[in-house]
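Loading example: each entry is read as two labelled lines plus one structure line.
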Amino acid sequence: MGGMRFEGSDNYVATHDLTLAVNAAVTLQRPLLIKGEPGTGKTMLAEEVAAALGLPLFQWHIKSTTKAQQGLYEYDAVSRLRDSQLGDPKVEDIAHYIVKGVLWQAFECETPCVVLIDEIDKADIEFPNDLLRELDRMEFHVYETRQMVRARHRPLVFITSNNEKELPDAFLRRCFFHYIKFPDRETMGKIVDVHFPDLKKDLLREALEVFFELREVPGLKKKPSTSELLDWLKLLLAEDIPPEALRAKDQKAAIPPLHGALLKNEQDVHLFERLIFMARQNR
Amino acid sequence: MLVDFFLHLKDRKLPVSTKEFLTLLEALQQGVIGHSLDDFYVLARAALVKDEAHFDKFDRAFAEYFKGIESLPGMDKAIPEEWLRQSMKRHLTPEEQAKLEKLGWGKLMEEFEKRLAEQKGRHAGGSKWIGTGGTSPFGHGGTHPEGIRVGGKSENRSAVKVWEKREFRNLDDQVELGTRNIKVALRRLRHFARTGAAEELDLEGTIAGTAKNAGWLDLHLRPERHNAVKVLLFLDIGGSMDDHVRVCEELFSACGSEFKHLEHYYFHNCVYESVWKDNRRRHTERIPTQEVLHRYGADYKLVFVGDASMSPYEILYPGGSVEHWNEEPGAEWLARMTTTFPRAIWLNPEPEHVWQYRQSTGLIRNLMGNRMYPLTIDGLTRGIRELGK
């Protein structure tokens, strides 16, 4: 996979340090572990890198019940038992009952490819440990058919985590790590630009102002994130809200229109309204 | 050179491993980055640090290590010495250059670096500091023949580098519990609450196992997702530590439903013969400590929260309490409690580095068999690990 370089894409703004981390992972063919606040584009990164480099993407979304084995293959014993009771000749060959998992599919891929292991921290604490060798050597053994599956090309592996569980050290040592921090005003401007290329400049400025002020409000349960800002802008555009409506500075008290897109929590909305009420009284 | 860097990180208690260091070298060899220190910073961080809680520590260690290089103005892009020498010559008359040779280039740069490190603010005039219009060899518009010209603007503090901004400070797990940290702390506690439970029938596993067994019943059991931890919380109340104690109390009660049992009691400074459950009625409704010792079994885990700073008399002598006459010293009661509940820790909201200056903190720590931990995420983790042993 040498020679490939990721430089961001038309619909994804990657900061300099993020592209560097991605390129380090691409060059050395090591997994890249991505952490960061929700809604900062962790999952999107894999999709965008795959699209930008023109590689197929295999996604594996992890749940609390997911086992490492399921990413490799599963042996469908129940089907085989049923077939044997019905006298189906298929039952002779166990290979018919081996269901390939995401990693097997990626290993078999004719071209280099990208694998996304999404929200790895959702799974059991042993999950990452169970994948150590598979991700390191990019091969595994199928016990039932006694065959060895090896990757034709080492896939580029992206792993996202929301920090719900700590990951084992042995696993971490094998990865590159990048923490996507919340974008600053400038980067945010670029991100919005990519999503809404013909957004009026003054509307964007006012909207960003409101957005960052809202993030500063102390005690919010869930601060609005990038994806919420984008949703809100979409609504503002659809409703054709003029930029002046956002400029609450002079009256210092108006609730931003369509704030439901930014605050997803009833308590947060209440808190926000109360703060505004107090601000009004202090004037 | 980079080996020193690696050892420096290890020295600063960053959990870096040789494998990761080799990965970094490999990346450098493959030319992942150019020759910029900024890029090196990002690459080194991606390869060596795997937890944003350590980013701040890494930033500090990085700044320390690359300080010499950094504090030279314009050196953030590694200017070759030869180039500097050339540009120097343009500013000096041949006569001055002769004098410069006398002092020697290396020595001059060395001095320069040293003074940059010493100097804090902008300086004008005088004969030592780097600044404008003086006779020091370093600075702008000066008269010293061997002077290094440090641009017209204040370049001695070059633009703040990423690692100097310390953006990840509040992700450090050594800082006190704040709003963001509380979430993480809760997760640790919840994990603690889930330990040690019985097994239940795994229906799916049993079906799959039975099918695999060609129809013979194959029972599967799995650990119950249930908690078994019982906690006794003793909180020091009525003093400068009230805020911290409140945080801790909220923390434990927030995951109170996760524990099998969670009981809390209050005391002041040190435990004596009685404690209380409701701080508003602390003088009327006191519970004998002896009763607490009898009521709960040895499988309860004991957690004290308090700053442990008081007069040593309050711990060591009968009648030492500031509030009432106690027949037996606090140390006696503390010893009784830790014998009844062998799994015990003391969480101290004071920063760990000031403990050594308080005699009473040392005393309590000894009485607790060194099991005193700071009220930080890291401290909680260590404490919980101790309780779980």
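The first helix of chain A runs from residue 16 to 28.
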